[in-house]
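Running this now, will post back.
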Amino acid sequence: MRQVINNLKYKLQKANKMDSKDHEVSRVYRTKAQAKKAYDRISRFYDYFAGVFEKKYRNRALELLGIKKGEIVLEIGFGTGHCLKKMAELVGEEGKVYGIDISSGMLEVSKKRLEKAGLLDRVELYCGDASKLPYEDNKFDAVFMSFTLELFDTPEIPKVLNEIKRVLKPGGRLGIVSMSKEGGNVLLRLYEWLHEKLPQYVDCRPIYVEQSIRESGFEIKYKEEVKLFGLPGEIVIAVKLPKP
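Update: finished.
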């Protein structure tokens, strides 16, 4: 009986700890090479499962980002290219869209989508790691990430955000939609448990989205909390402050 009581106390303490805003964000356990291999493998089928799940929220975030004609914009983790296509339409012939993704399989799927839409000439795609962006300083009017920031390991998140800040123009906009640790619930705890136990299959995990962006020196302009089939998510729009 004492052992049962102790086990219950431990579970309650663990639950309370996970409710705390200071609880450590889960780590990402698979390597970049493993991630690339996995996304290459599922690239042709991605839209049939995760794409359906993400569509509503990525469209909302892109709408809030407010891309205009003539702008130069970047998408990090463009996946199968749905947002690239929309962004290319928004910037028009005067603008330019860039995209970076770790998966060559995703790049090929996106390229075919853009070719079919007659928009490939407005888009430049690159296969690589967003923790080291291959672009010059102050290049972009806006940067967009949809369900991508939470795929980076915890120590890498500030590095990615600092790289984004580097390539954004002063006053440039950042739009991110991501799973979130804000408003945690039982379902979120179960998801995090699955992430720890099955990291090869449950690769992303919730993070503190607004907090991470704010701590990287951006000014938050808008935040919207969303529910991703019961899991908490955040849409955050921020700007790079001009140097004083």
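The chain has eight helices and seven strands. More later if anyone needs it.
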